Structure formats: C-alpha cells, structure tokens
Amino acid sequence: TLRKVAEALENWELTQMLSGEYDKNACTVTVQAGAGGVDAMDWAEMLERMYCRWAKKKGFAYKVVDETAGETAGIKTATIQIDGTNAFGFLRGEKGAHRLVRISPFNAQGKRQTSFAGVEVMPVLDESATAKVELNDRDLEISTMRAGGAGGQNVNKVETAVRVVHVPTGITVKCSQERQQNMNKETALRILKSKLLVLAREQQAQAISDLRGDAVSADFGSQIRNYVLYPYKMAKDTRSGVET
C-alpha cells in the first residue's frame, strides 16, 4: 500500500542520514553556559535536562559524567554520556550555540533576556578502539579536586574529581560523578582517547570541523537554533529554517 511505501522510504532516508562512520556509536554531549550571566547558566541546565529526557524517551542509557553548578542558579558546564544505537548520529546536529529569549526570572524588573549556551557532541569509541591510543604522560596534565553537589561521604571531603588536559591539543576532560578517584580518571582518559582517535582519523581540517565542530562561540550571531518564549513562543533552526 501507499502507507507502507511511505514508511519504507522514510526508513531508507533515516538509514542514509545515519550512515556516518561514527553515527552508530554512543556519544558525549557537553553543554556550557555562554553569554547571559545567570540566565545563561539556567538555560544551560534546561538544555541538560532536555537531552537527558530525550535519551530517556528514546530508551537510551545516560549518565552525567561531570557537572559544575553555577553560583546562583543553573550550571556552568555539564557532560552527559548517552549510550544507544545511533546516539551520535541523532545528536551530532546539536553542536553549536543555542539561543533563548524569555522574560528573565532573575530580573526584578521583569525584562526580556537573551541567553546563550554552547553544545558539543563527540562519539564514544569502544575499548578495543581506544586501547590502540597511546598517551604520553608528558603530554598530560592531570589534576584532582573535590566533587561538588550532593552525594556520598566522599563528596566535598576527598578529592575524587579528575581533570585531564592533553597539552598538545588543548583538549580537556573532567569527570566527577564516580565515588572513587581512579574510576573518574579511567572515565576521563577513555573519553579523551575517543576524542583523540576520532580527530586523528580525520585528515582534512574541514572533516575535523564537520565532526567536532569549530570552537563553539555561544554568543550573538552564532546560534544554530533559537528558542523564543516571549513575546511569542517559537523554536527555529537557523540552518534549515524549520520552526514550530
């Protein structure tokens, strides 16, 4: 029937769209507050919840690998690992700056506020692939710190959080959600290896840009999507022109 043909065509189109080298992999989504102060931090937290709810709705497993809370509200940055078939393929288009326009709940005068948050999406490679990546200790800067937020006995008492910086590339990975320092270090190194391996496999600068995205500038004029809550309600993707 015509309906079955339409469904088959839709499935074929989806298969073609998710045919990238890493599209079937799990991924990490990093959300970072941009321009807009407290409102931007609140907006970053809203995006974090949105991606977690999306993953739950899709039946994907997810966990917050790292989260840094804002001083007043929201978050400064958060990294979510999402495990599911085609997770990276579904989410790779989310990288870029996201703009929110609304009446600020933090403004006593009730003025309209524009806020920005940057999103980066990277695939997670399995251990068999990352095991091939050798890291020189001289290229790594590893530091520990106390994990913030609510948690077990170790939180805010023992330095369980780990930050790893790969000096040659400047890539930084931080993990703070595990209870033990060595577990956080293992997770951080695994994510770092995935990023390095993915970038190393791409030979051309443009290919790297398409995969990782240029350094996300979460500021005016750089957004990939607008979310407007006042004076009207609309979400519009600036790349495709699609709006709701």
Structural notes for this entry:
- The chain is an alpha+beta fold.
- It has helices at 2-17, 37-58, 87-91, 127-130, 181-201, 205-212; strands at 26-33, 61-69, 75-83, 96-103, 112-124, 140-145, 161-166, 171-175, 223-228, 234-237.
- It is built from six helices and ten strands; from the N terminus they run H-E-H-E-E-H-E-E-H-E-E-E-H-H-E-E.
- The strands form two sheets. Strands 2-3-1-5-4-9-10 form a seven-stranded mixed β-sheet. A three-stranded antiparallel β-sheet has the order 6-7-8, with helices on one face.
- A hairpin with a 5-residue loop joins strand 9 and strand 10 (234-237).
- The protein is globular, with a radius of gyration of 19 Å.
- Residues 151-155 have low confidence and may be disordered.
> Separation of termini?
30 Å
Shape: globular
Question: Strand pairing plus helix content: what structural class?
Answer: alpha+beta
Strand proportion: 25-35%
Strand order of the largest sheet: 2-3-1-5-4-9-10
- The percent range for helix content is 25-40%
Query: What count of helical segments does DSSP give?
Result: 6
> What value does the average pLDDT take?
87
Number of DSSP-assigned strands:
10
Give a short account of the largest sheet: 7 strands, mixed
Rg of Cα set = 19 Å
Question: Helix and strand string, N-terminal first?
Answer: HEHEEHEEHEEEHHEE
Low-confidence stretches: 151-155
